[in-house]
Amino acid sequence: MKFLRFCLSVVLIALSGLAFAQSDVHKHGAGSTAQPEVQSADAAKPAAPKSEAQISFDTLKTLAGEWEGTVKTDLPGVDPMANIRMHTTMRVTSRGNTLVHEFQEAGTPLDPSKYDHPVTMMYVDADRLNLVHYCDAGNRPHMTGKMSPDGKKVEFEFADLSGSNKHGHMNHAVFTIVDANHHVEDWTYMMPGDKPVQAHFDLTRIATIAAK
């Protein structure tokens, strides 16, 4: 079975490469080398303006990198003044169409049996900025986001939920860009009984990650 999955993965990757190759052949002609094309009237037209969703997404993509900092929360049983250190990774992938966000406690291994490691995906679809949070609670809340007029903040509001809500779900997220090397994240988790829990992350860049 593992061998079959491996073979299917290889086939899918090969088909993807073939599709790009055929596209290039249709563009330049089989057996020919690319030649400078004569600029048409259509090519001279200015590019269409970006949607608000795309501008917001492009702003978030500037956060690609490795980040570390503290988190403060009002979760019952946790000292609100405790400086718990967190590590965050944000990387652009899928030819620039997706931003992947990952959280974990700083200094801990990637061991899902012992430590939380939620993954969040952000992308634009139909002129709407979307966020899907793959939560350690076992569900996938979907939110939609908009940027503030000053271009420094992107706020996500809850849209819908996939999976069980037995243990609650992530309900709200705000990304505030202070500067190129400093940003703040505010996440709201809705506990059973609609009791909100706030988490405030103050993060400093420790590395930059190139887009893939």
Please state the overall shape, judged from the principal axes of the Cα atoms. globular
Report the order of strands and helices: HHEEEEEEEEEE
CATH superfamily: Calycin beta-barrel core domain
Distance between the termini: 30 Å
Overall tally of structural domains:
1
Helicity range? 10-25%
Total count of strands = 10
CATH topology: Lipocalin
Outline the biggest β-sheet. Answer: 10 strands, antiparallel, barrel
Count of alpha/pi helices:
2
Strand content: 35-45%
Task: Walk me through what this model shows.
With 212 residues, the protein is α+β, with helices and mostly antiparallel strands. The chain has a single domain, classed as Lipocalin (Beta Barrel), CATH 2.40.128. 17% of the residues lie in helices and 44% in strands. It is built from two helices and ten strands, in the order ααββββββββββ. A ten-stranded antiparallel barrel has the order 1-2-3-4-5-6-7-8-9-10. β4 and β5 (128-134) form a beta hairpin. The longest helix is centred in the N-terminal third of the chain and has 27 residues, at 2-28. It starts with a helix and ends with a strand. Mean pLDDT is 82; it is low at 1-28.
Features:
Lipocalin; alpha+beta; disordered N terminus; 10-stranded antiparallel barrel; 17% helix; 212 residues
